[in-house]
Amino acid sequence: MPKTTIKKTISDYLENVSLSRSLNTARTYRNALGSFTATLEAIGIDIENTMASQASEDWIADFSTALKSYAPASERLYLTAVTGWYEFLAAERLADINIPRIRLLIRQRARRPGQRLPQFPREHIESVLQYAINLTNAPTKDGREHLRNLRDRSFLLTLADTGLRVHEACNLRRGDLDWNEGRAQLVGKGNRESLVRFSKRAISAMKQYLTARAKLDGASGRPLSSLPLFARHDRGAGKKVLPISTTTGRAIVHQRTRESLGVECKGVITPHSFRHYFVTTVLRASGGNLKLAQELARHRNIAVTQRYAHLSNDELDRGYYEIFDS
Predict the structure, then answer these.
(1) Is 177 helix (H, G, I), strand (E, B) or coil?
(2) Domain match, 131 and 85 both
(3) For residue 28, what are the domain limits?
(4) pLDDT of amino acid 264
(5) DSSP of 194-222, one letter per residue?
(6) Phi-psi group of 240: left, alpha or beta (phi > 0 → left; psi -120 to 50 → alpha; rest → beta)
């Protein structure tokens, strides 16, 4: 086996992660391996001089013990990151690692994170959507504000009626949509290609927005299909057709929530609340069809979808109140 130090393998592993995963994931893994390194130093392992071939599976048990002050979900995430390092050692043949034993040690020691049920004020979201729909007729001081109103209306309806994550919606291009079929093919979480369907009201709102934007798009000198679906309409953008950022997407949700519900509701609704709303709407309308909701929401694991089922059970709600409030 090559003579490589523990420190060097950690550095190489994190470099691989940074090339293959998102910035947030790479940052989390870096933090996890930093904590792992601190644990090794605490038990007397000199990572600068200890060879990778001397890596011990028992270190994961020490690390798990050191993580007990963390939240269970963070503990699991950090253990996953360090397991990846052990797998890197095995794949590169830098150490003789028994991966099944690593996983067994984790199962024996790691806490299970509690299942937090997604909570959101459904009636508040519907109030925000109604407010957004009415933006079409809202008085404006200039053309930019009118375009922002039309954009925000179509953006919020898209979030609510497609289940798109905010960054996915912000990254949409005009050419991504099949306007006749009302759907788009996109690359989503985990670089998976998926088909996303759009409601008639979302399509109608987007067409109205793009019609109002036609002069700006036409003067861009670029193919219409390459232009962003949701564009910036601020002084900084000028006459350029620039895509909105994820930060702007969140700002749209926060601004329109504040305008429609008041400042006391600031932070109550986030872009992801609209994804929760989408899943529960599908479950309510389909009589609790979990497989349908899983496919439309693009959940890899149906267990994620099941977390929403309790929120869609109108029959249980009616039965309860008929018994206790009649």
Answers:
(1) strand
(2) no
(3) 6-109
(4) 74
(5) EEEE--HHHHHHHHHHHHHTHHHHHTT-S
(6) beta
Is the CB of residue 216 less than 8 Å from the CB of residue 240? no
Kindly state whether residue 318 falls inside one of the protein's structural domains: no
Which residues of the chain register pLDDT less than 50? Answer: none
Task: Tell whether 284 is covered by a domain.
Answer: no
Q: What is the pLDDT of residue 98?
A: 94
CA distances from 186 to 178, 197, 296, 320 (A): 11, 11, 13, 42
Assess if residue 213 is contained within a domain.
yes
Q: Work out the number of other CB atoms within 10 angstroms of the CB of residue 88.
A: 20
- pTM (predicted TM-score): 0.63
Q: Per residue in 180-213, is it b (16+ CB within 10 Å) or e — as a string?
A: eeebbebeeeeeeeeebebeebbbebbeebbebb
Q: Which pLDDT score, from 0 to 100, does residue 309 have?
A: 74
Whether the Cβ atoms of residue 54 and residue 5 lie closer than 8 Å to each other: no
Distance in angstroms (rounded) separating the CA atoms of residues 165 and 275: 7
- H runs (alpha helix) in the chain: 6-20, 23-42, 59-66, 72-91, 99-109, 122-134, 143-162, 166-170, 200-212, 214-218, 246-261, 271-285, 290-297, 302-306, 314-324
Q: What does the block give as tokens for 181?
A: 């079929």
CA distances from 192 to 2, 27, 80, 189, 195 (A): 36, 22, 21, 6, 10
The pLDDT assigned to 319 comes to 63
